[in-house]
Every structure is written in structure tokens, then in C-alpha cells.
Amino acid sequence: MASPSTTHNIEEALSAAGLRRTPQRIALLDYLLRHPDHATVDELWPALNKHRVCASRATVYNALHSLVKAGLVREFKLDASAARYDALLHPHHHFICDSCGAVEDLEWFEVPVLRQKQPGRRSIRSYEVVVRGHCAKCR
Ligand SMILES: [Zn+2]
Ligand SMILES: [Zn+2]
Q: In a designed cystine with 63, which of 24, 42, 69, 128 is the match (CB 3.0 to 4.6 A)?
């Protein structure tokens, strides 16, 4: 089960994003925060139903989609593999393996050039770096 502080953070994040706090959204964010291995829908759906939320695959998919649209979850789509999902409540960067498609978290670091004045009228809300290569297993 989620710790009270995690649940609190999740509910705050949903409210701040203007989303209703449905059990599916809360359970999805909770699961993704606890399992930083960037699961696919086919991994998320049984995992969610095993715990407490009874939801069809379509319901899980719709809940995920609303979280992605609100910027709370990041969707990784790599060519031949299924999309993977990741909660973005804590900023971090990513490493993606070219061979197996594994997505790993990288600790946050600033990219100073993005903090400087941007050309034209562009303004930056957030950013994340994607590093590509071969993971330890595929090397
Ligand atoms: Zn790999
Ligand atoms: Zn991540």
C-alpha cells in the first residue's frame, strides 16, 4: 500500500494538474513511483488488478492517457516495442537501450544553457535529457 506521504503527493499532483482523483489514476501513479522500471500497459494492467483496483485494460489505458496528457506520466515509444510509462513527479533523465529498449532512470542534473535567455519568444517549462546506447545486459 502507498505510504501516507506518497498518497498525499499523488493526490496533490492530480489536483494541481486539474485531474479528478480516480482510484485508477492514483493506483497507476503509485505503482509507477514504486516500480521505476518503466512498465508497459501489459505489465501495468495485471499489476494493478492484483492489488486493489479492478479495471479493464481499456480503463487502465484511458487513465494512463489522461496522466500523460497532464504531464504527470511520460510515455516512451520505441520503434518495435510497446510503449513504456513512467511517473514524472520527481524530475530525472533517461537512458534508453538501442537493443532491448530498456529505459533506465538517470539522476537529475541541470543543463545550464536551458536556464539562459531563449531566442525569440520561446519559454521553457521543463526539460529532460534522453541518453541512448547499450545497457549492461546488451553490451
Ligand atoms: Zn539492452
Ligand atoms: Zn524514469
A: 24
- Total domains, the chain: 2
Q: Is residue 139 assigned to a domain? A: no
Q: Which ligand is nearest to the CA of 98?
A: 1
Spacing, Cα 75 to ligand 1 middle (Å): 18
pTM as predicted: 0.77
**Proximal ligand: closest to the CA of 134:** 1
Q: How far is the CA of 101 from the centre of ligand 1 (A)?
A: 6
Scored b (16 or more CB within 10 A) or e, 79-110 reads: eeeeebbbbbeeebbbbbbeeebbbbeeeeee
Examine the domain organization and report whether 16 and 51 are in the same domain. Answer: yes
State which amino acid sits at residue 82.
A
Centroid of ligand 2 to alpha carbon of 121 (angstroms): 30
Same domain as 18, residue 61: yes
Phi then psi for 75, rounded to 5 degrees?
A: -105, 125
Domain residue limits at 56: 4-87
Same domain, 74 and 102: no
pLDDT digits (tens, 9 = 90+) for 77-94: 766 678 899 998 888 999
Ligand 1 midpoint to CA 7 (Å): 33
